[in-house]
Amino acid sequence: MNKKLKRLQIVMLDRHLAGVEISPRPSDGWLRAMRRALGMSTRQLAQRMRITQQSADRLERNELDDSITLKRLRAAAEAIGCQLVYVLVPEAGSIEGTLRVQAMKKARALIDPVNRTMVLESQGVGKLEEKIREKAEEFMQNPNPRLWDE
């Protein structure tokens, strides 16, 4: 993928994510919370899904312990008149932010050892943080799998 296309992809995804409002999952899970808010029993959910009531109870528990599959959660959502929406939200607030954090980490990992060696020889790199930022910018210009190598 060329650099311009990658950059466009990042910008478009970040714009899309900017409109996403994330709410924490209710303590009893989305499925149970929505079902109860709608006044629906687990028996009724089970009937709509054509499963046993015990299976419907298990679905709600599985959501809470993160062992439910997207397929089963989607089916349950549809049974209560909802749609399943999921999204991956970068911890750094944006894809650009996540790339910047990783680029700085990678740049520091590359430059710090060189600087230490040169300092021991009284030839320090000088302006260490500036050099790290410059290297990070290089990584930002062309994000690729090497950026994520440990």
Summarize the structure.
This protein has 7 helices and no strands. It is elongated, with a radius of gyration of 24 Å. With 150 residues, it is mainly alpha-helical.
Structure description:
The relative contact order is 0.10. Helix 6 (95-120) crosses helix 7 (128-141). The protein is 63% helix and 0% strand. It folds into 2 domains: 20-79, 434 Repressor (Amino-terminal Domain); 95-148, no CATH class. The longest helix has 26 residues, at 95-120. It has 7 helices and no strands. The model has no long low-confidence stretch (mean pLDDT 89).
The strand count comes to 0
Low-confidence stretches: none
**What oligomeric state is this?**
single chain
Helix content: 55-70%
Please write the string of helix (H) and strand (E) elements.
HHHHHHH
Structural Rg: 24 Å
Shape: elongated
Summarize the biggest pleated sheet: none
The CATH topology assignment of the largest domain is 434 Repressor (Amino-terminal Domain)
Describe this protein with a few key phrases.
mainly alpha; single chain; elongated; 150 residues; 434 Repressor (Amino-terminal Domain)
List the helices and strands and how they pair.
Elements: H1 3-18, H2 30-37, H3 42-49, H4 53-64, H5 70-79, H6 95-120, H7 128-141
